[in-house]
Amino acid sequence: MRKQFLFMAMAAVVLAACKSGGDQPSTDMPDWYYTGGKLGTTTNTSSMTFRQPTPATEDAGLGAMFAQGDNIAEKDFVTNESGRQHGLGPVYVRSSCQHCHPNYSHGTSVPEGVYNAKDQGNGTLLVVINPTTQAYVPWLAGMPQLFGVKPFKAPLNPDMITVQWLTATDEHGNKFADGETYELRYPEVHMPKEAVYVYNQGYRDPDGLLESEGYEVKLENTIGVYGSGLLDAIPDQDIIDQYAKEAADGKLKNGLNPAFWDGGFQNSGYYKNDPQWGPKRFTYALTRGPIMDAAGANAIWNITNVTRSDRTYHYLDLAYKAGQAGTSIYAEYASKDPEVQAEFGTQEDIRAYLESNTLPAEMTDEEFTQVMVWHRGLAVPAARNVTDPKVLKGKELFTQIGCDYCHRPTWTTGQDEVRDPNHFPVTAQMPRYPNQKIWPYTDMVQHKLCMENDIRTGWCRTTPLWGRGLHRKATGDQYEARMHDTRARNVIEAIMWHGYSKESDAYYPTQQFYNLNKEDRDAIVAFINAI
What is the pTM of this model? Predict the structure, then answer.
């Protein structure tokens, strides 16, 4: 297995060097070439770049387990009652990791028209919220399920949901001083109440949002899953120190999210940062961390509704309290559906099944361990063209205009003692990345950009930039699909959205970028695409 991956990596590097003058790894490469440090970087920058194991994974003898986890993540789960990929449903968001993370990159750009959730690569999730409170609506899951396994029916009908792309014009008229133009677009999602299963079954929302269509629907794209293990290895105290620094220097117009920080970490509520497990570090909303309880560990359960020994209950809706009968809105109305009753049984039988918290585990502990070895073992691609004068100039300008404040270039990992809030007995088998200088280009903190049709709450974790320049190569996407909802088709659009509003935390560096000449702007774009 190790020879196979090494052969693929060497072949890709040679091919890239021959075709485009790419850098070949050598002893005199700058440290930022090794984006994931020596233990976390792959030199394979082909279309398979995000699928490679880290050197640490191979060195620990975990190559076979990594391959098994990759196999589970790649293939569709099915409705069978036995077999490796069994247990899909009764309702689900997608049937595989690859559907949302094509080649383990970010989700691809969403086309205008019907929201086709069946398209592999459509990694966007539908975020349905109360616009007043910004909270998720209780009658759907936080990640609404779009499919059902007979006799159960999908909570949402994606064929009735459409996406429309609208244009925005900034204070510069979308034109640089030298005449070069750019476009800004953003999505609006239209979802009629008839797309909601429980509404069609007679449910009426006490808040009146459902029947009046007073809810809001937003797109939220998946992030690349590569490099998550390296972010997990950043010491807690270093992240806390970063918060303290940003709170003290007063450079952010919107300050820090008070749900996380108010002179110290908040330790209550939805955003609880338990001192035992450290500050949250995953998802746009910073709802997950450490990695053994983070997005991947969560998604392999709730995206597919495949149970495992630590989660023997279904993912249904926000009203549902696991194991508490009578709390799920979906279960109540599915149990009353005559067509479901005709195939499944009585109302009591249906509700007991949907709301049980003692369901048999469909994914074995061994399989979950393999998935997590794969998840924690995915490498980040080495930086490209690190000796190119244009890229080097862009690197200097990136810092000079202040992009590096939020997109902090580098961190150093700690001893990397893997922790698991779920107390799953697999941490000893995980790959580790001690004492590595890594280059993710994120401060691991949330900020506000104040864009049109912004992300839920407006607070968004600074997305790591490493590897993003390879998205199109890895996925075949026509655009780079940057920003939280794929609104930015290229780097220029992404940068200019950062300064669309004068209330944005990134308004100042965006104006610095705007005032650069085209040569310098192109250099920054080249650098961002190289890292």
Answer: 0.93
